[in-house]
């Protein structure tokens, strides 16, 4: 294989995706995090700041995108999401390409993308891993963070592909019941992929 095996990681909010990605990193797998990339683009002097300032002037303060203000602008304007995506998506794609180039010698790389299926990103992966949990557990996890209301969570879930559909399309599924169980599942999956693509 000329390039690393690209394993896409996705799952709805609160399903344990960040924890799973961290466990892959602990096993020595290079991880590209779409959310962290976007955070970087939004920071002071980030690559997206100027374009976002033009499209959503109310969302930029002190040379950085304020996510809470941007969220407010998106809620108020139905067309805002697609305008934001035309700014952010090309920058994210470029960052991912740079990551893949930097890790061209790796056996496996993990692409951690929350909206993988929603953005058609699975086409750039050799396989997709979906993390899942019981809907009640998911809701409890998200609300326990204390960063959003039930209404905000419902809004996010409405934008995300239903968990059942993600699972139906996945190549691999890990149910995130406990940290130890996920760690074992991650190690097993790495072995499986290495054996299949040796």
UniProtKB/TrEMBL annotation:
<dbReference type="InterPro" id="IPR027417">
    <property type="entry name" value="P-loop_NTPase"/>
</dbReference>
<dbReference type="GO" id="GO:0005737">
    <property type="term" value="C:cytoplasm"/>
</dbReference>
<keyword id="KW-0963">Cytoplasm</keyword>
<dbReference type="GO" id="GO:0004140">
    <property type="term" value="F:dephospho-CoA kinase activity"/>
</dbReference>
<comment type="pathway">
    <text>Cofactor biosynthesis; coenzyme A biosynthesis; CoA from (R)-pantothenate: step 5/5.</text>
</comment>
<keyword id="KW-0418">Kinase</keyword>
<comment type="similarity">
    <text>Belongs to the CoaE family.</text>
</comment>
<keyword id="KW-0067">ATP-binding</keyword>
<comment type="function">
    <text>Catalyzes the phosphorylation of the 3'-hydroxyl group of dephosphocoenzyme A to form coenzyme A.</text>
</comment>
<dbReference type="Pfam" id="PF01121">
    <property type="entry name" value="CoaE"/>
</dbReference>
<protein>
    <recommendedName>
        <fullName>Dephospho-CoA kinase</fullName>
        <ecNumber>2.7.1.24</ecNumber>
    </recommendedName>
</protein>
<dbReference type="GO" id="GO:0015937">
    <property type="term" value="P:coenzyme A biosynthetic process"/>
</dbReference>
<feature type="binding site">
    <location>
        <begin position="14"/>
        <end position="19"/>
    </location>
    <ligand>
        <name>ATP</name>
    </ligand>
</feature>
<keyword id="KW-0547">Nucleotide-binding</keyword>
<dbReference type="InterPro" id="IPR001977">
    <property type="entry name" value="Depp_CoAkinase"/>
</dbReference>
<keyword id="KW-0173">Coenzyme A biosynthesis</keyword>
<keyword id="KW-0808">Transferase</keyword>
<dbReference type="GO" id="GO:0005524">
    <property type="term" value="F:ATP binding"/>
</dbReference>
